[in-house]
Amino acid sequence: MTVATRRRTRARELALHVLYMGDVKGPEAFEEAEEHFASQARDPEIRAYARRVLEGVREHQAEIDEWIRRTAKNWDLARMAALDRNLLRMGIYELLHEEGVPPRVAINEAIELGKRYSTTQSGAFINGILDRVRVLAGVGDRGGPAPPARPEPAE
């Protein structure tokens, strides 16, 4: 693992902390993000990528959450474990919006963080959702179309 890879992994952890705090404490947690990043990482590159991921997830959250709803069959977004939900958000953000992150890396990083911080089943759950998003979005050549259209309700 290269130094740059470890930096990005650490940055993802920090972004995950703040996203999780946002779910638990509410929007005021995001106001404390810079302080959290500064207290947890001296390296400006780590703080910068953590900030980029956090801001990217927040900016694209409606689109990202729609991808989750469309691909996580029989799972209500609000009932998912907060860590898993936020790992999916980060992974989808990186898949669709981060040019410099290969899809395999975005997925593997989310899986590993899920295994480390969430439940024993989280890795497989996260892998399944992110891989489905990757396929549906046609990511591999770096692209991210709009989420699949919602089907018309059955009469």
Could you explain how this protein is built, in words?
The protein is mainly alpha-helical. It starts with a helix and ends in an 18-residue tail after the last helix. α1 (3-25) crosses α4 and α1 (3-25) crosses α6. Helix content is 70%, strand content 0%. The chain is built from eight helices and no strands.
Tags for this model:
N-utilizing Substance Protein B Homolog, Chain A, mainly alpha, about 160 residues, globular
For the sheet with most strands, the description reads: none
CATH superfamily: NusB-like
Radius of gyration: 15 Å
Shape descriptor: globular
Class by SSE composition: mainly alpha
Terminal CA distance reads 54 Å
N-to-C SSE string, H for helix and E for strand: HHHHHHHH
**Uncertain stretches of 5 or more adjacent residues:** 141-155
Number of domains: 1
CATH class descriptor: Mainly Alpha
CATH fold-level name: N-utilizing Substance Protein B Homolog, Chain A
Any idea what the CATH architecture is?
Orthogonal Bundle
Number of helices: 8
Strand content: under 5%
Number of strands: 0
Q: Helicity level, as a percent range?
A: over 70%
Average per-residue pLDDT, rounded, comes to 89
Describe the structure concisely.
The chain is mainly α and 155 residues long. Helix content is 70%, strand content 0%.
Layout of strands and helices, then pairs:
Elements: H1 3-25, H2 28-31, H3 33-40, H4 44-59, H5 61-71, H6 82-97, H7 103-117, H8 122-137
Helix pairs in contact: 1-4, 1-6, 3-4, 4-6, 5-6, 6-7, 6-8, 7-8
